[in-house]
Amino acid sequence: MVLWPYYAFMHEWVVMFGDSPTALRTPASIGMALASSMIVLVGRRLFGAPAGLAAGLLFAAVPAISRYGQEVRPYGIVMLATVSAILLLLRAVERPSVWRFLAYGLAVAWIGCSHVIALLSLASHVVIALSAYRRNKLWTLIGWPVALVMGLAIASPVIIGGQRQGGTIGWIPDATWARVETFPGDLFDSPAVAGFFLVAGIGALVALAFGRRAWTAVFLATWALFPPIFGYYTFHEFYFFLPRYSLFTVPAWALLAGFAVRQIIGASSGAATAGAIGRGIANAGSFARVLTATVLAGAMLTFLAWESHVAVRDPAGGGEFAFRDGAAYIEAREKPGDGVIFTGYPNTHRGFRYYWRDRPLSEQPREVLVDQAKVIPYSWDRPACADPVPCLGDTERIWLVSTDPSGIATSPLNAVDQKAVEARYTVTEHVEFTRLWVSLLVRKPAK
């Protein structure tokens, strides 16, 4: 599968650090934190230290960064890989050497192995290379393509595998104009925050373009805009148009916003003050002003996106299912011999089994509509019973877990299973959680 390098890494991580929620979330958190530091370094190279610090701090204020920085998904690592590759390329074209281009090539491979779609960020690398060529750094024309090809070659098994698994992202909704309108708000996980970065970013691009920094403007515009635009116009071919798939573009917006803050405050990387002491005092004052403005801007963004920040810290936030709450509810009320039926979302059983992981499988509720004889050990596949009646047997109580939005307990079951269950059981409890319903079915008295 496309993300097998991430899952292979997580397998070894779990072996070393366990499978608690904190342990599972730590790699993404470390990735996002280090990515923020890398953004500071990139910003310092492009615009000076004050703008770099502002960019890193504003990046951390984005609700989507908080969300994906604590989810058990590869996006935190992807973010770190993407920004690291940019930083390494800037260093390589500044002072070309074999080792610097080798490090850059490995970073490109890291991007491809983390998330194939993030390779769209390579379009901005082309701009950096062309800009270096204009400055008569011909050695870049040799080192950059070789390093790029090397990185892509290392990641080629993952890239080729991704081309064969388009069905895994075929569920993504069509790229309608309505989705385009909501894309920025979904990307930042807050329309208000998206508005701030769009205004600041566009203003920064204009200032750069008219301030003899056109190549920097083109580089950041390509990084920020090319991936979602490409995803939109090639949607029916690649199915890339999904906000979180473009999450690696957020650093570009943060860098533009950091530059905008520095420009608005009037900070200058080269203050014209007589004497070394005078220049030091002026630079310290500029740095302090930018830092103060950035903290105030971050506080404003946090206030505007308060609901989003609260939501992403909810166990069922971000449109997820309340598996933890549902599993705890059943565990507190179940009796020996209880059965369970998972309906709706096909992977619901995985979420519940995770929260019951410290209990032997024999002590957990048995999935009564699963043909236990056909279950393959260590597999998540659950072959259904051909005839539900023998599988239900004499089970007295069944917990029915549904993700069906209708909230009707048995509605997601197929007609045969639904008929068998409704004929033998009655609903005595029905509790609603976030995107999840738990019902207790008790066998009807024999007639």
From TrEMBL:
Residues 16-160 form the Glycosyltransferase RgtA/B/C/D-like domain. InterPro entries: LipidA_mod_glycosyltrf_83, RgtA/B/C-like. GO terms for cellular component: plasma membrane. It comes from the Bacteria. Keywords: Cell membrane, Glycosyltransferase, Membrane, Transferase, Transmembrane, Transmembrane helix. It is a multi-pass membrane protein. GO terms for molecular function: pentosyltransferase activity. One of its GO terms (biological process) is lipopolysaccharide biosynthetic process. It is found in: Cell membrane. The chain crosses the membrane at residues 46-65, 72-90, 102-131, 138-160, 192-210, 217-235, 247-265, 286-306. The keyword Cell membrane applies. It holds the Pfam family PMT_2. PANTHER family: MANNOSYLTRANSFERASE YKCB-RELATED (PTHR33908), MEMBRANE PROTEIN (PTHR33908:SF11). This is Glycosyltransferase RgtA/B/C/D-like domain-containing protein.
